[in-house]
Predict the structure.
Amino acid sequence: MLNQYPLWRYIFIALVVIPGLLYALPNLFGNDPGLQVRGTRATRVDTQTLENVTAALQAAGINPREAALDDGSIRFRFEDTEQQLKAREVVDDALGNRFTSALSLLPSTPKWLSSVGGNPMFLGLDLRGGVYFLLEVDIEAAYARQLQSYADSSGDLRRILREEAEVRHRGVNVNRSGKIEVRFNDGASRAKARDAIERLLPDLTIEERDGESPLLLLSLSEQSRKEIRDSAIDKNMTALRNRVDELGVAEPLVQRQGDRRIVVQLPGVQDSSQAKEILGKTATLEFKLVDEEHSVQSAIDGRVPPGSKLYKMRDGVTDILLYERLLYSGENIVDAAATFDNQGGGGAIVSITLDSRGTLINQRVTGENVGKRMAAVFVEDQTEVQRDASGKPIIGEDGRQKLVTRRLEEVITAPVIRDQLGKRYQIEGLDGIQEANDIALLLRAGSLAAPMRFVEERTVGPSLGRDNIKQGFRSVTIGFVLVLIFMAIYYRFFGIVANVALALNLVLLVAVLSLLQATLTLPGVAGIVLTVGMAVDANVLIFERIREELRVGNTPQASIHVGYSRAFSTIVDANVTTLIAAIVLFVFGTGPIKGFAITLSVGIVTSMFTAIFVTRAVVNYFYGGRKLEKLAI
Amino acid sequence: MEFFSKDTKFDFMGLRRYALILSSAVIVIGLLALVFRGLNWGLDFTGGTMVEATYAESVEITTVRDQLRTAGIDDAVVQYFGTARDIQIRLPASEDASDAIGASAKVMDALHDAFGENLVQTADSDVQQCAKAGSTETSPCHVQMRRVEFVGPQVGDELANDGGIAMLIALGCILLYVTFRFEWKFSVASVTALVHDVLVTVGIFALFQFEFSLPVLAAVLAVIGYSLNDTIVVFDRIRENFRKMRRGDSVEVMNVSINQTLRRTVLTSVTTLIVVLTLLLFGGEVIRGFSIALFIGVIVGTYSSIFVASPVVLQLGISRDDMLAVKKEGAELDAIP
């Protein structure tokens, strides 16, 4: 019997279609006004915070529909925007500046749906409105600094030449092409030096040159360049994330792009110049000795001894007295990482690496002060818009919003100096790996890795975001309807079957995009529109083949059979080439273009599935196994 | 309903000389336009700053330009992009990249200043709010920022580079694929058709000075992939007919093949054109260039499948023997799903 599908094929199709409908469903639900609370500067949000905030809200007569703590932040859901705005003020008052709150739109997906992973599609900035920045880290500066620290008088190079190789040299300096030049008296010294350097300084690549005197040219190896690059980007990203948290933006994105760039996305932000200003600033670190001679209590009472200053520790409660003298600062820190102490007790430690200047100072200070405590102070200039009693921004006489800058200084940690330290040292006695991570994070956030600059910005205002969604939606709807009408008129019954497949195709496309949580952009919507037009190609191919077979004189059943089988390889061929183009676009494209590539690729796959399998199934169901006189085609 | 109840019998191959003349003419005009007018490169490739703003009432371009000049911005290009209330301001890329990022803020400030108001970042509203100096009252700004784009110079160069490479890689992959599925004469012919499509599209963009931005490049790439569909369908039929038809020389076989697939070629182009026209009319000005590129691409792509790809195959001396070599491979892939 021709054209009869075995049952399992129908089941298979159902197995694809029903989850498809399910996962496309979340997109039909709207959004609720929400509030997101996060901690800044490595402050943790926990159940205690949740209790405090909930209590504060209830005291103010606000009852959130939902309050959830997950993934380091608290999310509240409200009935309306009025409650949402009021809640923000209450929360900000209750929590102070260790936490930020951000207004957000939370999808109203019902619990049963989201628990199986059903989420609405993720909208790109061009559909939501917001700011996109691309920053580039000046890696060359980082390389230069590292190389310089070898060449410095306190650096490792001279020490090795002197003590390990035991040779005299006629000069060490960085030449114009950025390499370290070491001049020797003779070839023998150079050979000895080369040996020692190869052995002890694996980060450097060595070249020999003969000038007026034998030379060694040293530069950073590819491996060490990569390490510096990764570390610099990591530190800059940490600093940026820190800053972005303070901006109070819901769902921000900070991501590495390529080998030296960082993407920052701030949905909902409209004033990009303010964002730029705040992101451009970085925090710093100050290392000072703890003043243990004088009484902290009397300082609190008002009698601060000259040369010292009162600080608060990170917990916001404990006071500590530090000598004002700055020992070294964050720019002398090359790296700070949290690890486990392999040699000691096995507890969590923070391992700090300093540059040459920091090493020098550290050696001297720690040598003279064993047994005393040294503190790391986190310093940040926080710029905020000044608001009046009702929360509205204050405008100054010059017409600009009044910005108030507060200098935040808090002591991250103040460990005891066990013995004289040098380039690398550890901070021990921490509460656990969590605390170690926090401290390392703050140290990295406060240490300038390499200068960054903005190389790209794309800001979309709220009105354009709205327009884009409207126009995109309209295009899809109109295009879809026009194609439906055309197919129904031109191919009659088979046209309607094709239309069913087309509708299903769209549903599957939306479902896959939602599941992947791929970002939908305006070109992405155009890709969906294009898919609608291209999806019918396959059906046109099949139906025209069927018509041809009928014209030649074949029976209806045979025509259907031949139509589908002959067209199959052609359909695959044709779609594969578009798929190739879409994949190339995906690999090379960024942002909006990637969105287009994704919708096009997924659309091609789903349209092949629906055009071939689903229409065949429907046709077989209606026509299969019967005797046919005519076909409504 | 059917448009063609019988197979048409156009002598397509006979027209190929005229097609060659037409294509050459269009390409030459396009190349001339490229040389003398150049492409209207978008910001993505040139670098620079672009600000789009919408006013509450219509505004004069000269007024805006004067406002910018007062703020010290002299080299701005100001034009309408929609109605007389929509203004687009472009600043060229500057060598001093350090504060180029701040240029857009300067522009918006200048525009706000003309109304004596300043932007106030408020909670997620659909409309930007402003306040006058010294007050806390906010109201919708007279000038609404629609979008801002800044592209640093090296990023622009990179995007242009990457775009070119992407194009070449796509063409290369397609060449390989078609060779694998058919044989080399077909792949040379199809690549020729694709290059023809790209040249015509780019030429038209140069002629009418449509903005050539990154999405336009993406559209051209998508068209490359898509226009091959038609070409492959025709080639497929040609291969089938070479094997089936005992009589007839190459010209006849190809004519018959194209006539047989004409219906299908026209129809799929029609359905795709329906949606592309929808995009063009309703998609909005942000993807205008993209939609135009798709529109031109689909039309030219269909034309080139018939009048460029097939003649080239013919010229390369396609014959029945070429088909026998690929027979085995093709047969096993014509399977039922």
